[in-house]
Amino acid sequence: MPILKVNNITKRFGGLLAVHDLSLTVEKGEILGLIGPNGAGKTTAFNMISGYYEPNQGQIIFDGQDITGLRPDEICKLGLVRTFQVVKPFYQLSVLDNVMVGAYNCTNKNNIAKEKSEEILEFLGMTDLSDHLARNLSVVGRKRLEIARVLASEPKMILFDEAMAGLRPTETDEIIELVRQISQQGIALLLVEHVMKVIMSLSDRIVVIHHGEKIAEGKPQQIVRDDAVIDAYLGEVTTDVAS
Amino acid sequence: MSSHIFMQTIVNGLFTGGIYALVAIGLTLIYGVMSILNFAHGEFLMLGMYVAYWSFTLLGLDPYLSIPIAAVLIFLVGAFIQRGLVQRVADSHPLSQIILLLGVSMLIMGLVQFFWTADPKMIHVPYETEVFIWQDLRFSIPRTVAFFTAMFSALLLYLFLQFTRTGKAIRAVSQSKDGALLMGIDVKFIYMLTFGIGAAVTAIGGVVLTPNYRMTPTFGQAFGVIAFVVVVLGTMGNFIGAFLGGLIIGVVEAFAGFYLGGDVKIIASMLVFIIILMFKPSGLFGGKNA
Amino acid sequence: MRTFKNNLKDFLIETFMDWDKMQLLISFVVLLLIGLSPLVVKSPYYMGIIILTTLYIFLGISWNIVAGFAGQLLIAHIIFLAVGAYTTIVLNNTYGVSPWIGLPLAGVVAAILGVIVSFITLRYGLKMDYFALFTIALMVALKTLFQKWKFVGGAVGMWVRLNNPSWEKMIFKAKEPYLYIALGLVVIGLLIQYRIYKSKIGKYFLAIREDEDAAEALGINTAFYKTLAVVIGAALAGVGGGFYVMYVNFVEPLQVFNLGLNVEILMAAPIIGGLGSLAGPVLGGILNKPIVEFIRGTLAAERSGTSLIVYGTFLIISILFMPQGVTGVFYKIYLKLRDRYVKEEL
User: CATH number, domain at B67?
Assistant: First the structure.
């Protein structure tokens, strides 16, 4: 049974149809990439799955439970968490405290939360940053913190919202490796991304959306050759490119 | 309530409302451009009153003649406060901005009280009790002049914002700070200018009130609170909304004063406020979301 | 004896290395000094200032939790104090209920008001600025209502029914007993504040303050925790209000539904001391009232408006130049001392 099942979700904003009849699944432990040109509806779909928007139609089922219309914090408690494209650290709190907030999702006890947080920070190689204030971290440091926080909440699945945005190539490689390690722990991932290299190297499968609709789905090698995808990204298909 | 009293109440309400409108316009202008709730706003009105008082007492100037003086002086005060104080916390937690302006408000009230005491002051002009009667309705001369001065000031400000280059720059900033920056507008300067204009306009409102009211250092507080009600009612940042909202609240208050008594009529505004906040926080002219 | 000394040393070092514990220690040292003050302070006038200072510390803690920890723009916090004061005095005068019961009940009533305020705020989506304005409008509305409500004395207010002094009635001839009650309240307040700060609840409050969206994404039911913050702050302010009325002996609408008083007794101490810090209300409290009284008494020769000027200036200076407050200044010194100590040890 897939851990995430999105069934025919639709979202309208006034007269604008942002997402139309979108369906996708994510298997346990899988990495699904969600790509599409700007304005394709990726963010809207993302926000519906994570509980920030309510779909006008359709259903979202996580780990066997209908989460359509639930609040973000309720969804998090069920094991589905998200990161933010523009990271949102708790600036005035220390790195450790930031992660502890995530850890408290699963416990009320201070010492357990602290232990869990320290573990996560060690996994990420951030232990010596524990006492630093979040606002003093570098861009990539804040991204790692965002990931650490989310990991501390013991998710079954993580939704990454353009995790590589704003990173330099070496930093991107760092985060790619990190994402891979997280996946190896059995956590399912849905990556919304722009950076092709990231999507291609990480995804087990890719879903492409354009104008709010799914136009292609399949393994990375298939997607790269798909006419509809190329059309969407480049605006027109020429036989030369396709062959 | 006879139709005569009804009409009289409406007239009284509109006249008070005209002042509310002017004060609210200043407040909504500041909010629209800088997204700051000026918790010191009522104090600018109070300062306007004191400028009128001292112009009258020391220079023998009729209060309406001291409008330019008050406008310029309080403009400078407002501009200084923005540039020197408010601008520094532009990016901080909203709580910091509110606390800062509360501090400014207290400081202004304290200074006025310190130098000029808390004893109520009044100006006595020869025409203060004159009325003219029209259609059986009483129009107090000072209040009528106050109303039309306020309307005229609001109109001038409106024309300024619509048709002058600076006015358009101000409106540009209120719509999109980044867009305005890209167009080469000196946004920080506009902030300072707007705050000053907002303060000046409010001070004018204070000046025209002087023939009718006793002034004390805390006089502006009640007006400040009502100005917030009007601004929210008329949609925050909306000029026309503040104008109409002011008149509406003035009339609502006048009727509340008739039925409930003068000292508690403010509860009508508070109830209106709470109801708006609950059911239509985006105000009369607002969209779906607050 | 040796192990006791070692244990003590370890305890002190452990405390020293933890700024949170240090703040608590500093706070208790200050309280100790306040508690010993009757030995040196004999004048009722100065004792009165000390008592109010102590009360303002307690009240400052209540606002610090709501605004400092949880970042809620609860401006007119004084409505909870006012409601608490009225509850206590009405229970005392009209129903003969001892203030010792009246104080906790005041906290309960204030907490209920807190729930109502939170409910309306959340139900109608009053965010940030709108919430601040709502609390102010509520304060003005309540003022008007109380001015007209005969049962609580209307505009004239109520005087505490002064029987013979007794502990049962919380009426004393001397000042000192009031000081000890106030100190007791502060001790309780500090412990509550500390426990909250170190717990999940405290971290959740801070998270909400820093970034509500991120907090929600991490599983925090922000509506619940914001309400909790308001309710805790309200309850403490209500209890403080009960003591306030028993000490000052009267209450009237113009006095308590007043933004100036709100700043003076609820906001100034935490702001000056460091909003959101543990020692803020204490360090700010011992500065604010005494300095104001000093300036008013000496420099300003009792001229009116002085306290407004001083409070206004304090607020402006704090926000612009000392956002972390006095505690922040102490913290920087502490860090240097700690670094030096760590270097010496290694």
Answer: 1.10.3470
Q: What rounded mean pLDDT belongs to chain C?
A: 92
Instruction: Tally the domains of chain B.
Output: 1
Nearest to C130 among B267, B271, B281 (CB): B281
**pLDDT at residue C321 tops 80:** yes
Which residues of chain C does A72 touch, with a Cβ-Cβ cutoff of 8 Å? 213, 216-217
Give CA separation, B270 vs B27, B228, B254, in Å. 18, 10, 14
> Is residue A170 over pLDDT 60?
yes
pLDDT, average across residues C226-241? 97
Chain segment C250-280, per-residue pLDDT in tens: 999 999 998 889 999 999 999 999 999 999 9
Nearest CB among C206, C207, C216 relative to A72 is that of C216
B284 in a structural domain: no
C-alpha distances in Å from residue A202, one per residue of A36, A217, C189: 16, 15, 52
In this prediction, residue A235 carries a pLDDT of 57
Which residue range is the domain that position C128 belongs to? 43-258
CA A198 distance to own-chain centroid: 13
Q: For chain C, how many structural domains are there in total?
A: 1
Q: Percent of chain A beyond pLDDT 70?
A: 96
| Within-domain flag for B243 | yes
Q: Does the distance separating the beta carbons of C133 and B110 come in below 8 Å?
A: no
B38-90 residue pLDDT tens: 999 999 999 999 999 999 999 988 888 999 999 999 999 999 999 999 999 98
How many CB atoms neighbour CB A58 within 10 A?
A: 18
CATH code, domain with A236? 3.40.50.300
Tell me the shortest Cα–Cα distance from B176 to chain C, in angstroms: 20
Instruction: Check CB contact of C156 with chain B, cutoff 8 Å.
Output: no
- Which of A71, A91, A101 comes nearest C218 by C-beta? A101
pLDDT tens digits, one per residue of C75-108 = 999 999 999 999 999 999 989 899 999 999 999 9
Q: How far is B262 from chain C (nearest CA, A)?
A: 11
Q: Can you give the residue range of the structural domain that contains A78?
A: 4-242
Within 8 A of A102 by CB-CB distance, chain C residues are 218-219
Touching A: C residues 181-210, CB under 8 Å? 198-200, 203-204, 206-207, 210
User: C288-293: which pairs have CB atoms within 8 A and are 24 or more residues apart?
Assistant: C288/C53, C288/C56, C288/C314, C289/C49, C289/C52, C289/C53, C289/C56, C290/C49, C290/C53, C292/C264, C293/C49
Specify which residues A32 forms β-bridges with.
A190, A205
C8-35: burial string, b at 16+ Cβ within 10 Å, e else: eeeeeeeeeeebebbbbebbeebbeebb
* Mean pLDDT in residue range C115-122: 94
The C residues from 230 to 289 touching B (CB cutoff 8 Å) are: 259-260, 263, 267, 271, 275
Any chains having at least 3 CB pairs less than 8 A from chain C are A, B
Above 90 in pLDDT, residue C224?
A: yes
Phi and psi for C279 in degrees, rounded to 5? -90, -5
Q: What pLDDT score was predicted for residue A236?
A: 41
Task: Write out pLDDT tens, residues A21-39.
Answer: 999 999 999 999 999 888 7
Question: How close, in Å, is residue C283 to chain B by CA atoms?
Answer: 19
Q: Is the dihedral of CA A12, A15, A20, A26 positive or negative?
A: negative
Q: What is the C-alpha separation between B237 and C329, in angstroms, rounded?
A: 39
| Best residue of C309, C313, C318 to probe chain B, by most B CBs closer than 10 Å | C309
User: Over the stretch C26-44, which tens digit does the pLDDT of each residue have?
Assistant: 999 999 999 999 999 989 9
Q: What ipTM is given for this predicted complex?
A: 0.89
pLDDT tens digit string along A136-156? 999 889 999 999 999 999 999
Residue C246 makes CB contacts below 8 A (sequence gap 6+) with C88, C89, C92, C99, C160, C170, C171
